[in-house]
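Here is this case:
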Amino acid sequence: MTSRTPGDDMDEKRIESFDDLFEPFGLDEEPDTPVSAPAPAPQGQSSSVVCPSCGTHNPGSNRHCEACGARLETGPLPVAPPPLIRATPGARALGVLAAVVLVVALFAFVWSVLRDDGSSDVVAGNGDNGTTETSVTTPTQVEELLPSVVSASSQYDNFPADNLIDGDATTYWNDKGLRGREAEITFRFFQPVQIVEIDLLNIAEAEKFTRNYRIKGYQIVSDDLQVPISGTLEDVADPTAIRIASLETTELTLRVTSTHPATSYEGQPPFNELAVAEIQFFGSSG
């Protein structure tokens, strides 16, 4: 038999006291208290997102990895709003220039409308074959214009060109038996005038109207017009208006290019003269 020493007894007591410090553990025994399930994540908290680059778990609200900074989402990036356009000195200058041009254009339009309130169309014949239309601006105040001097290419002493501007329609001018060939009548004014209309009156009396030649084709030449005005007149005793676009006329010539023929009247033979009773001018002076 092995003898025990006092030291062995003390060692056993130490081991027993050390074992008392721990509770026995067994895998086959059921736990006294049930293990509770892990608490669910609070509602509203997003799940974690694994970084595709380094594998770090990141909160679901992150757009970039907290470890490596790589982008976590694969969807399109949000588009930032475009920056506000700031006005530069050049842009401001262009804006001011555009505003000035607009104001000037508007003023010019209004001015043209006001000036065109009295405008009218002018119909002037082009020889015997047709007519052309031009625009004439009518003066603010239209009045009869009296020539200071009138002369003709030919005349009789008792039927002078002065009868054309005496204001009496019963008196008239005759050329000197030329049937109106190459007939010209020239009018002069003391000061420049703007002529918008010329009224030509034939003889009103039926016998004299029929037996004298009458103006048919005409050409008007003015010292302020570069292009002559041509046309034809109807064969009537009523006044015939000729519209022109004169601006600063001091001399105007009426040339006869063709005539309506004279005919017999109640057995009386026709005359060989061209006859005109009155020529009147209307427009403004000064």
About this structure: The radius of gyration is 58 Å. The CA atoms of residues 150 and 187 lie 5 Å apart. The domain at 122-285 is CATH 2.60.120.260 (Jelly Rolls).
